[in-house]
Write a structure and sequence with these properties.
Length: 458
């Protein structure tokens, strides 16, 4: 068993029994569900909208090389810079190179899962550069020394009382503040950082190939501040974020808003096509876009797993996942938790170390039904399991157990052979410690259905 799997199982065991944690996360997800039911009413035919979105992403991913080159050509013609990063180390070093060239001591950062993927904050800290999270949820998590808990709602697992206590302990704020008061405290702490920072770093919700643009959607305005005050704007984005045309935003912006937060449209939606021009009154003097591969090309080469690159990072599959609702986001130990994380992490970070995530699922159809671009998450989880077995990444004992299971289940004679007492003893011995400590184990009936059928029907 890999160390990553041991940690995952240990964390999951703790969180599965933490009823207070479950209460907080279920409250947050219930709020999301209620908002989503209202937000979806803006679509006359939700299924058709999802199908069209999937087709757009299919076209984008199938022609990814063409669209990325088109984006680069147009974006650079506007005065921007495009950097191709093959892996985490490349992306970090390119960002550090820019920071050193600008003598940057402080960086302000808007919400970005890709920067979490490469653990950028830790890297910049190691190089004596202060990196400040400006999204309120990310800011809370940074104060607490924790990674994001959820793709869209980084501090979903914290109650307002938890956050008030954190602000009191770390920011010397008054105790027992209301959410509105805490927001004002965060604003007061961040405004000065926006003005001090030499560089602003963002992700990208979408890369727009036809205009050479970067589309960013947010609710707090912190991304706009991160790209307006600093003289240099760095965008770090995965290569899969491409849309063929700016016209596709008419579908994708409402979809992302509805599935991400139950809104008709997020509050701030911005398109960047390069650095500030002479006729413009604000914006960065220089703009860099770093296109990160980091395993995505390998996913693209896999005709089945390729579909996972359609993801628009709305977090809806997490909210629908029965596993995520119990163990939460931190148990996964990856930047991308939940069903989509269980699919893509083994390909981004290694199947051997992270194959267990694809097994940590009851194969519920709910996350697939929740996906706005109809990614078949259930099929992709099964594909990962198949790949793990075909690559001989399972241990011998596991393979022997499944071979025995298969042989018994294909033989009615072998299934009927032991009596109910023997079956119950076997189950208790095999699952009594891990499963039976907190649950009732099943009792086998004296006779199987097959035996009863023969007795009654001859």
């Amino acid at each position: 068993m890999q160390q990553t799997e041991k940690i995952f199982l240990a964390k999951s065991e703790v969180k599965a029994q933490d009823l207070d944690h479950r209460r907080k996360i279920n409250f947050s997800i219930k709020q999301y569900d209620n908002a989503f039911q209202k937000g979806r009413l803006q679509f006359a035919d939700m299924d058709t909208a999802r199908e069209r979105a999937k087709n757009v992403k299919w076209r984008a991913i199938e022609n990814l090389d063409k669209y990325l080159e088109q984006f680069e050509r147009i974006f650079t013609s506007h005065g921007g810079h495009v950097i191709w990063a093959e892996n985490t180390e490349d992306a970090r070093l390119e960002i550090l190179k820019i920071c050193k060239a600008k003598n940057a001591a402080t960086v302000v950062k808007s919400k970005s899962m890709v920067t979490e993927e490469i653990q950028l904050n830790d890297f910049l800290k190691e190089n004596n550069i202060e990196s400040i999270e400006t999204d309120l949820g990310e800011f809370i998590q940074q104060l607490d020394g924790e990674p994001p808990y959820h793709i869209v709602s980084p501090a979903m697992h914290k109650s307002k009382e938890d956050i008030a206590k954190l602000f009191h302990e770390t920011l010397q704020a008054e105790s027992g503040l209301t959410p509105e008061q805490m927001t004002l405290v965060a604003r007061a702490n961040l405004r000065q950082k926006f003005q001090e920072a030499e560089i602003g770093i963002t992700g990208a919700n979408f890369i727009l190939a036809d205009i050479g643009g970067i589309a960013i959607t947010e609710n707090e305005g912190n991304a706009r501040l991160s790209t307006t005050f600093p003289k240099t704007h760095i965008v770090l984005t995965g290569i899969e974020k491409v849309l063929p045309s700016i016209n596709d935003l008419g579908l994708f912006w409402p979809l992302l808003a509805t599935y991400g937060a139950g809104q008709n449209l997020t509050v701030y939606n911005t398109i960047f096509t390069g650095p500030r021009k002479e006729t413009e009154i604000d914006g960065p003097d220089e703009m860099y876009v770093i296109l990160l591969d980091n395993g995505r090309a390998n996913m693209l080469a896999n005709e089945v797993i390729r579909e996972s690159l359609y993801c628009i990072r709305c977090g809806a599959c997490l909210n629908a996942s029965p596993v995520y609702k119990i163990i939460g986001g931190h148990a996964y130990g990856t930047a991308y938790p939940g069903p989509i994380g269980a699919v893509i992490t083994p390909h981004l970070k290694g199947m051997k170390e992270y194959k267990h995530l694809s097994y940590a699922s009851p194969l519920s159809g709910a996350p697939t039904e929740a996906c706005p671009v109809k990614i078949n998450l259930l099929e992709l989880l099964l594909e990962n399991r198949h790949e793990a077995v075909e690559s001989h990444l399972t241990d011998k004992s596991e393979r022997l157990i499944w071979q025995l299971w298969k042989r018994i289940n294909l033989s009615r004679k072998m299934m009927n052979l032991p009596n109910n007492r023997t079956k119950n003893k076997t189950i208790k011995k095999m699952f009594g410690k891990g499963w039976g400590e907190r649950r009732d184990l099943p009792d086998f009936a004296p006779r199987s259905f097959n035996q009863l059928w023969k007795e009654r029907r001859g």
